[in-house]
Each structure stands twice: as C-alpha cells, then as structure tokens.
C-alpha cells in the first residue's frame, strides 16, 4: 500500500489537515466579506511572483474558486485501481471521470465549508482539469457529493473550455472579470497561478512558493489541501531533495 495513499485516503491526520484548511478558509472569507476588499486573490495577466498585482473587486459579487480532484473530491476508486503500482494512463483517468463518480466522496471539511461560503453569499466556482467532454459526469460527481450546484461555464470550468490546455490562468481571469475572488483552494501550486509551473526543479518551485511577495497569501486567500499521492509536488531525485548541506551520517 503506497504510503501517500495510506495517508491521504485513510489517515485521521489527513482528515484533520483538510478540515483545518476548510475551517481556516471559511473564517478568512467571512472576515473579508465584512471588510469589503478592493482587490481579490487572482493574479492579473501582467503580474509576477516578485511583483504580484491582483484583479480589482469594484462592485463585483464575491466568489471562491476551487480545484476539484483532491481539493473537494477524493478519488478513492481511481487510486484503489492504481494502488498495485499501475502507471498513470490518461485514457484510464478519462474513463474514470465518466464511470468512477460513485466512488468519490467529499474531502473532509469541504461540504461544511462550501455550505458556509454560500450562506455568506459567496459563489462557489470549480476550476478543474477534468475534460470538458466529460462535463456531465463531473457535474454529477460534484453534486452527488453534496457540493453542487456545478453549472458548466458559470460555476464549473474545465480543461478544454479554452485553448490553454491544463493551464488555469485564462479560466481564472475569466472568472475574475465577473467576480471578486476572495479565496482559492487547491492541492497543486498551479491551482493558484500558472507562474508556479515555470520553475524546472523542486528547489526552484519551493523558492517560488516561499517568495516574499506571495508568501503572505498562504492561509490568507490561497489555501492548500494535502496531496502526497500525485502531481507536481512529487518530483526530484535524492540529490535534488537532499543537497550536500542537508546530509548527515552517524560517526563510526
């Protein structure tokens, strides 16, 4: 049993972290709604991580934007199938999008958090790299987990809605044109900005996440959910992760 799967899909610790993130997110949003912010948390098109600029709020209604997989839904069926060590296959994932919805459940804390956001008058929007061709199955999966409504083109945006592939910024900008986005949640850095996808090494990506100009956003507009199972976080050799100055061995 892969340790990451044990942790994410089976442990009380992962459930606690997820609930903690959702509790923090809803508390933050409630505070921001009271304060009536002048800008949201979506980076504008000309922004950089060193010099971030954010879409203005004006008089737009409030929204919160979330990734789907391992952010609001846990894909237990697909990962059960993969637990034997089967390598990832895009065709297999697309088949799961269509037929695996009955095995998904809401991420711990997600339903309570989403319900709380809607009570505050905040529109909940899903921005996923699931395929637009499978929109109906994705909508059903989200709504079966009690997280809906999810309306394609309004509160559900998918890979294939534009010509940018798995990059999400174009969809975020489209959402920010209509809404004041005061919180975002995801399990990958690309769920917050495509700028995080540019660094080529684990060390560079870690430095990007720690950049002083954006570091204050984690837990204050940008909220990360745990995912040690797949994605951009799982990269790097032993030498990448433990450079020379990080090594220790006991004396003989």
Automatic annotation (TrEMBL):
Keywords: Lipoprotein, Signal. It comes from the Bacteria. GO terms for cellular component: cell outer membrane. The keyword Signal applies. This is 5'-nucleotidase, lipoprotein e(P4) family. It comes from Sphingomonas gellani. The lineage of its organism: Bacteria, Pseudomonadati, Pseudomonadota, Alphaproteobacteria, Sphingomonadales.
